[in-house]
Design a protein that fits this description.
The protein has one helix spanning 102-105, and strands at residues 5-9, 12-16, 25-26, 32-33, 52-53, 62-68, 73-80, 85-92, 95-101, 110-117, 122-129. By secondary structure, the protein is mostly beta strands. It has a domain at 41-129: Macroglobulin (MG2) domain (Immunoglobulin-like, Sandwich). The strands form four sheets. It has a four-stranded antiparallel β-sheet with strand order 8-7-10-11, with no helix packed on it. Strand 1 and strand 2 (12-16) form a beta hairpin.
């Protein structure tokens, strides 16, 4: 089944109308993006190293992101559907859990794309905030 993929680029988010639902997409720059759909189960990783949402999706109060990195460094950036950066974290560690409190951040209801860059892989997860 063909689906639209949201792809983060250096200039923002581009929506691409090709790709197979649930499969990875490799950009012209070599970045790998997870296939996206409206199903929360599609955010399940194929291995423990891949980023995943471990909270309810959709959610009304917080989003929990877990991943393992072998480089020890990571950057996580959240974008709204218009490509605006709304939150970001960077740090070091190998077994990472980020708890994003959307109530404290004043985040509006909507769809958000979470870009996880571990230095060895770039993944994009989708979450829905519903109030």
């Amino acid at each position: 089944m063909l689906t639209a993929l949201a792809v983060l680029t250096t200039t923002g988010i581009a929506i691409e109308d090709y790709g197979v639902e649930g499969e990875d997409y490799v950009s012209d720059y070599g970045d790998v993006y997870n296939g996206l759909s409206d199903k929360a189960s599609d955010n399940e990783p194929t291995s423990i190293e891949e980023p995943r949402l471990t909270s309810a999706n959709p959610t009304s109060d917080s989003v929990r992101i877990n991943f393992v990195t072998t480089t020890g460094h990571y950057e996580v950036t959240v974008y709204d559907v218009r490509g605006r950066k709304v939150e970001e974290w960077a740090g070091s560690g190998r077994d990472v859990e980020i708890n994003w409190d959307t109530n404290a951040s004043g985040i509006a209801s909507g769809v958000y794309l979470i870009r996880v860059d571990t230095g060895e892989n770039v993944s994009v997860l989708k979450t829905v905030i519903s109030r």
